[in-house]
Amino acid sequence: MSDMEFEVTFPDGNKYTQPMGLFINNEYVKSKSGKTLDSISPSTGELIGSVYAAGEEDVDVAVKAARGAFKLWRKVPALEKAALLNKLADLIAKEVDMLASIEAWDSGKTRDQNALGDVEETVNCFRYFASWADKITGKNIQYDPKKLAYTIHEPYGVCGQIIPWNYPLLMATWKLAPALAAGNVVVLKTSEITPLSVLYLGRLFKEAGFPPGVVNILSGYGADAGKALASHMDVDKIAFTGSTATGKIIQQLAASNLKAVTLECGGKSPLIIRADADLEQAVKWAAVGIMINQGQVCTSTSRIYVHADIYEKFLEMYVAHIKENYKQGDVFDSEAVVGPQVSEIQYNKILSYIQIGKDEGARVVLGGEKNTAAGKGYFIKPTVFADVKQNMRIVKEEIFGPVVAVGTFTTDEEAIEYANSSEYGLGAAVFTRDITIAHNMASDIQAGMVWINSSNDSDSHVPFGGVKMSGVGRELGEYGVTTYTQAKAVHVNLGFKL
Length: 498
Fold this sequence. Notes:
- The protein is an alpha/beta fold.
- It has two domains: 275 residues, Aldehyde Dehydrogenase, Chain A, domain 1; 190 residues, Aldehyde Dehydrogenase, Chain A, domain 2 (3-Layer(aba) Sandwich), CATH 3.40.309.10.
- β3 and β4 form a beta hairpin.
- The longest helix is centred in the N-terminal third of the chain and has 20 residues.
- The model has no long low-confidence stretch (mean pLDDT 97).
């Protein structure tokens, strides 16, 4: 084992060797300062290992490596880019079990019920964007026989990417895959809380045959590496996923050279259940919408509005469904669906919001406390608050945990008013059998995404992003590729003479 690695033993006895260096120019290297950061297992609160933490100097080195690689990468034929992305997908597919274990142990996802799906979707996402590499085309603009005009869609160049801790591997993929397919090179900073799986991914980029410098992966703190990356004068675009508060800072830092910005920030997504809804399905999807990934999802439908005529029936069915189907336990328990929160800080924040909800007068119908029986890690019981009012903090503020606020409405207009009474506008869901009303409500709700009779079933083919304080721009789908290109207009004189 080299001095750039440490060994990890999972609770099931399996072992692997974890890279700990910064991944720059296809090599793992120490940070210039020698500083490290600790990865803590949410399941136990104990140290997994330490990785090197990037600072401003390391960002400079990575950006320089990327800038040099861009000269080559932008000239690589599209089909060769596609082949490399598909080769990477093949390598990830061979390591699905290993990557799922790393993700579970580092982030607190239940391995079989959560992390495995994330890694499988990572494979699908790389394959999807590989198929876009040779389909990025411009337009021929014909309006005068004496002039030809056309556009070329070109990559920005060096893209800085900053990802959150809730979906380390998948959020990295959402950014890396379209950027690379469009011909960009990347310096990506992981969250300091969950660095392990994406660092491991660096090995697979090298094995797949990506040229040195095309992908650079830095572990580090936002105040150090994140700030340096967002403000760097030789970075052409910055893409960020994380809190709205940090998104504001990123946008300000990006003004250093007016670099292009994509922001995917917070949310407080509503879920509306009309009286004519299929109640059994609404119950199931409403549980998925807040309990998956321990509620640590930016699009979690964390405030539910139920028509008054079916309100009590919904609550009864909802609580019973969560009790029966959302077992909480160790991340390597194959039957566990809900794991621990990602960190002690997040754990304490969620518990404080639960207390706020109680103090505000909301009725606890499920959970409402820590779960010491599930393990010695950061476990909080799935929590349902009922009878909430619009002015309550648990209704207005993003909690980012397995905590949902349920209230009532009597008219569609009232439901829309409640849904839109938020500074956020990321996702929303509507449950009804009336498809005309469903489409009208989807149009009236202020959100970047609306699910009709489902919740949070996003995929690589469909754009993802928000409005208002939830962000700027889109990821995934065709929109996710075009956001990594800029149009150049070419004018050709075919006969005009002066």
